[in-house]
Amino acid sequence: MPSSLLLFLNFCRRLCALAVVLCFSFSSSWAQEQRVIGEIISVNYDFSIASTDLNYYNLKPGDIVEVFDQGRSITRLEVLEATTSVSTLHPLSSQEKALGKAEFKNIKVGNAVVKTTLRPPQAVSSPVPLAPTIAPVPNLPSIVEDVAKQLEGLTLVNQTLNAQINNLDKDKKILQDEKARALAALEEANKTIMELKSANQSLQQSSQQFANQTSLEQQKAQQLMDENKNLHSKMTFLKTRLDYVTDLVNEALRYEK
């Protein structure tokens, strides 16, 4: 084989080896940049749903994360939903039947969450270095818009709460006025009750005095009746004696003639 061909083949082999080394180095560097670590913040064992503090800057629906407990791998979960604050995880679809709820029961709050699946970088035609895929700058306008919407919503909620507080203050004032009127009416009713009690007591005393006076009058009437009866008896006795004396006098006069 000509020496020039051998040199060309040797150059090609070295070029391929260099390309492999560069690809491996790039992949390792990209993987390190994409390695994301968070923790479990809530677990719903009934529905096999867990939440992590990693947000949509770190995770996307469909990503796979691995859960660790003190450095020991427990299971892998799939990202179901990612928001600005948390991400929702659930068992892998292919492992749901095999896992059931056994391994999921081992997950607890505070377990480490590590992103395992990597999203390959898009191919570029220029030799410009690839930027990390996790970059909040491209999403900054949407974040500002979300914050503005949330602020607007909170403003509306605050206005609604202030209106409700004002209505509650008005209702409280009405209730206080009604309470004051009710207390005044209750005080007037108590005063009337006391006056009625006093009048009733006076009436009872008068009735008792009248009853005592009536009893005394009855006693006097009975005494007069008894005296009249005695007087009538005496008059009857005296009339009898007078008739007897009269008869004696008439009899004596008749003998004298």
Notes on the protein architecture:
This protein is of the alpha+beta class. Helix content is 60%, strand content 15%. The chain has 3 helices and 6 strands. The chain has helices spanning 3-34, 96-99, 140-256; strands spanning 37-44, 49-52, 64-69, 72-82, 87-91, 112-115. Strands 1-2-5-4-3-6 form a 6-stranded antiparallel β-barrel. Strand 1 (37-44) and strand 2 form a beta hairpin. The longest helix has 117 residues, at 140-256. The chain is rod-shaped and about 215 Å long. It starts with a helix and ends with a helix. Mean pLDDT is 76; it is low at 24-34 and 119-139.
Count up the helices: 3
Distance between the termini: 224 Å
Over the alpha carbons, how many angstroms does the gyration radius reach?
59 Å
Q: What about the largest sheet?
A: 6 strands, antiparallel, barrel
Structural class: alpha+beta
Would you tell me the overall average pLDDT?
Answer: 76
Shape: rod-shaped
Question: What is the fold's blueprint, element by element?
Answer:
Elements: H1 3-34, E1 37-44, E2 49-52, E3 64-69, E4 72-82, E5 87-91, H2 96-99, E6 112-115, H3 140-256
Antiparallel strand pairs: 1-2, 1-6, 2-5, 3-4, 3-6, 4-5
